[in-house]
Amino acid sequence: MLKLKNFFLFTILSCLLIALVGCGSAKETSKETAKETSGEPKNALEQIKKRGKLVVGVKYDTNLFGLKNPSTGKVEGFDIDIAKALAKEILGDESKVELKEVTSKTRIPMLKNGDIDMIVATMTITEERKQEVDFSDVYFKAGQALLVKKGSKIKGVNDIKKGTKVLAVKGSTSAQNIRQKAPEATVLEFENYSEAFQALKAGQGDALTTDNSILLGMQKQDPNYVIAGDIFTDEPYGIAVKKGETELQKAVNDFLKKYNTSGQYDKLYEKWMGEKPKK
Ligand code: GLU
User: Fold this and answer.
1) pTM score of the predicted model
2) Which of 55, 112, 147, 242 is least enclosed, having the fewest CB within 10 Å?
3) Which residues pair with 118 in a beta bridge?
């Protein structure tokens, strides 16, 4: 008798479950159909066009790439000009761009959350990151190096010994790479590049490590600090979009090709880096 009761209970519960699951997927399908018929944007590129604005995650603390000028409130740099040129390409007007501040740590979560349409923020293309986002073609070639106070005994990565304090930024490839290249180093991690540079100037570390391009910006801000030695990694920058947004990825790549062949890329590079790009 008890067995029979259990059997009925099981059957009823199973039916309920099937009905519920069925219900869910039906809802999804009707949503899909509604999307198609109501003209709702089907992908990120369409959404951007419908919205009439491109929302780009950029750095606010990185000289030469994305730095907020405290006196004007404007954010300026190589990445900012790329973001504006992209808005011009996609929406016909470079002012149709909204810049949102990201750090190395927040940029992927913000993209995944839908806070931003893309990341243009000194971001290296890596296999690990490719699991989470899709990248454009390479738009800038950098490599990791060290920044030290003028006269420092550290002349390159091989001079990092046990107890050498190296400053880096959370969520950057630099923080990961330095642990491999100099396993004896004491690595201190900061939220962003202005904090890390402040810490170096305050004597909290012996060296700061990140891309040579970013270090060049710091050296320009304060010539008492210099790049020590050669680069010891390759850091090719890419523009990241949400995974699966192939139309937007293609639009970005088409833009980069055009921007390059028209000579605008070289001009922009020279404007910010003070020299022509090495080919
Ligand atoms: N290019 C490196 C990276 O993507 C360092 C610069 C940064 O932290 O944005 O991690």
Assistant:
1) 0.86
2) 112
3) 56, 241
